[in-house]
Structures are given as C-alpha cells and as structure tokens.
Amino acid sequence: xxxxxxxxxxxxxxxxxxxxxxxxxxxxxxxxxxxxxxxxxxxxxxxxxxxxxxxxxxxxxxxxxxxxxxxxxxxxxxxxxxxxxxxxxxxxxxxxxxxxxxxxxxxxxxxxxxxxxxxxxxxxxxxxxxxxxxxxxxxxxxxxxxxxxxxxxxxxxxxxxxxxxxxxxxxxxxxxxxxxxxxxxxxxxxxxxxxxxxxxxxxxxxxxxxxxxxxxxxxxxxxxx
Amino acid sequence: xxxxxxxxxxxxxxxxxxxxxxxxxxxxxxxxxxxxxxxxxxxxxxxxxxxxxxxxxxxxxxxxxxxxxxxxxxxxxxxxxxxxxxxxxxxxxxxxxxxxxxxxxxxxxxxxxxxxxxxxxxxxxxxxxxxxxxxxxxxxxxxxxxxxxxxxxxxxxxxxxxxxxxxxxxxxxxxxxxxxxxxxxxxxxxxxxxxxxxxxxxxxxxxxxxxxxxxxxxxxxxxxx
DNA sequence: CCGGCGCGTCAAGATCGCGTCAAGAGCCGT
DNA sequence: ACGGCTCTTGACGCGATCTTGACGCGCCGG
Lengths: 225, 225
Fold this sequence. Notes:
homodimer, alpha/beta, Rossmann fold, Arc Repressor Mutant, subunit A, 2 domains, 4-stranded antiparallel sheet, elongated, DNA-binding
C-alpha cells in the first residue's frame, strides 16, 4: 500500500514494527540512526516516517528539523513517556503525531493509516474538474468556460477548491468560511453570498438558474458536476 | 476539523493542549482569562470549549454561566479541585463534561471528540435511512422520494432527525418540541401538527393514509421504516 | 344524542436567509 | 503617486420558510 520508514536504534522494536507493518501490506524501510534516516528520506521519499527520538548519532528533533527542510512527509514520533518536553518540541517542528512508549502495535498501525490518509488528502491535488459547460484546472489555475479562458481571483479559486474537494457533497457555510478565510470566520457574513454570486456569474450558463453551484438554504453550498 | 477554545491561565498546560489538539487536526484558540474567553466565544463561535475553573479574573462557573446565556457550545470543564460541589455546579450550569487534573491528554482528546460529535454531527450519525418508498440521507441533506429529489426545509429535517433517531420507537410530543424548537417549548402547539402534515405530503405515498409517520394520539409520533 | 378533545388542514402575516448591487478600502505593479 | 484589481462591508428587495390562528372532522364518554 504505502512505504513506511522506521527509524529506531533498537533492533527488537524495529523488527516488531517491520513485521506488523508488512502484515498490513506496507512496504517497510529501516534506518538505525539519524544520518541514514535523512538519506533514506531523500532517496526513497517514503509515504510515512516513524521516528524514535532517542537516536545514537543525532538528536531526534534535529532529524525531524532536517527532514522538514526538504519534505512534507508525515512523521510519527516515538518517545519514552518522561521526555514530554521533547514531545512538545517535536510537534512544534512539524511532527504529525506522537506515540509514547510503550505503545500497542495496533495503535501505531492506526496512526500510520491516519497519517497516510491525511497526507493523501492534502497531497491529492484537485487536478482538473470538468463539466458540460466549463473546465477548471486547479493546478494551472486556468478556467475555461464555454471555450473561453476566464480569469478567477485568488479568493474565488479558494472557494472553488473548498467546494470541489468532494463534488456533489454538501459543504457547510462554516466549513467554507473556515477553509477559505481561516478559523476565526466561523460566523455568517456576506462573504459566501458575494462569492457564490461572483462564481455563478463567471461559470454558470445561466447565473439566474444555477446548475452547478447549488445553495442549500440555511446550511451551505453544493458543487455538482 | 473543528475549532477548540482552550481557556487556562497556565501557559504550560495551554501549550501542551494546543499542540496535542493541533496534532489531531483541530484549530486551536486560546484565552488566558474569563473575559477574553467570553469575547472569543462571542466572536469566533468555537465548536468546543475547554474551560479551566481556576481563572485569574472571573470565577470559572461564572464564565460558564455567561457562555450559556448566549451559546450552546459544548464546554468541557477542567478542575484541580476534587470538590464534588464544583462538579455538580458546573454540570448544572450546562457543562458537557468534567475532567479533574491531573488528566491524560489522550483522555481529554477523546472527550473533545465526543463533545464535538454530540454537538456538531447530529445529522451525520444517522447516516442514510431507507424505506420502500423514499431514502433520506441526513449527512448530505438529500431526500429521494419515488426516485425524485425532494427539497426539505431545515425545520423539516430537524423534525425528521428527532423522529428517525430510533426508528419504530415512539417519540413524545414533548421530546420532539424540545429537540427541534428548544427546551422552552415543552407545551403543545401547532408546530407538530403542521410539520407532520408537511412531511407526510412530501414523503408518504398516500398522505391521507400514513404508512411511515404514524400518529400516537395524545402521546406523539412514531417513524416506521 | 351531544359536547369536548385531539388531530389534520388551510391560509395569512411575520420573519429569515439569500441574491444583488455598489461604495469604499486595501494592495499591487507601474 | 497613480491606476486598476480585489476584497470587504452595508443596504435593500424578494421569495421561501416559519409562525400563528381558525376551522372541520372523528372519536369517545357522558
């Protein structure tokens, strides 16, 4: 399914994890120290990294920092229970999750799946969305409506992204506001009405009778292909 | 996913909680004292509030009381004291959960998830309800009756939610009124008759002979599949 | 047979949410 | 500094939705 890099200097733990991960059909890479880990991340670009903070050569947080300089790969940090400061630091540096030892293998597997899923969701670019009337290329930021190139503003693109992540699904006003304008905009405002209007004018065949950008009164909007 | 407000005057605890919550992909807002907390609740309408009772300016219970004057947001109360009086008082004032310090971060995270679920995703838990004649998708707010998409109003959905929580079971008029129109509407009124009527017209094969939305005279209504 | 009670039905008025417009502020490149 | 493009914000009208009151009908007990 996915490639997981296990970074740990304890051969026993490494072995246990490898077996468990392979049993769940992950591809497993291993590294015993920080330098090797960095090399493997660079060479193989794994989908998930499991990183023990207690390493022989480099400090675990240092490894994490360097990984983050070049990669957004999800990192799950392992640490002994008492090193809570490390934990805090690791998460600040961009770890995606932490697990304190001792831990159950099942728990770790669940977190690997979760991390992979989160990354996949983020990484999954919207690519191209096509309807009978217009085409949206999110990667290129190009919109073609009825054969003509149309300019959309940055905010319009972001609204569309939030709506098109799951075509056909309802997106609540709150979700829309938060993913476009940030967490603080949880309440109603004119934004959505104005931008829904704007988008309909630019995209819909007949803005007065929306076919793709559907409003769900009191709830939010739905984008249908 | 959801926005959590952490109200605590201990910077260390605040930091730990923030990091843990962010690691589980919540948005985090913080407040060091009661006044700020009230302002943030009013301005940002978070999805969950974690409230420490020991605050510098206002008494924690007072903060809770004022939050409840304007908002139904789920509140999880933290307290160092083992005094059960506080616990009782807090729960009376409308706290949704109560955690005594010291506590495990995982435990708190679980309670945040639980609180968020109770409050936000009421519809989502119901999933899809299907009968021989119509299908209701509460998450997507879609109703298909005899193969056709039917539009239901927000209040109609809320009534259906209350009815469908336990298909086949009797739901009393009081329960219905309370869960749709709020705690103050314990008394009889026309609401239920009007909306039962409305729903039957939209959903029943023959509104004159209800097969799914059954009246229990003097008691309430029953939804049967 | 009669009267009360509870439910179904209807319709009118009040209210709410959305679409629309436009003015002004902020930002950027020139 | 200037001009153009965006974003923000307030105002307004309209249609959908909610609320409320009135009325009729059937059931049940007196």
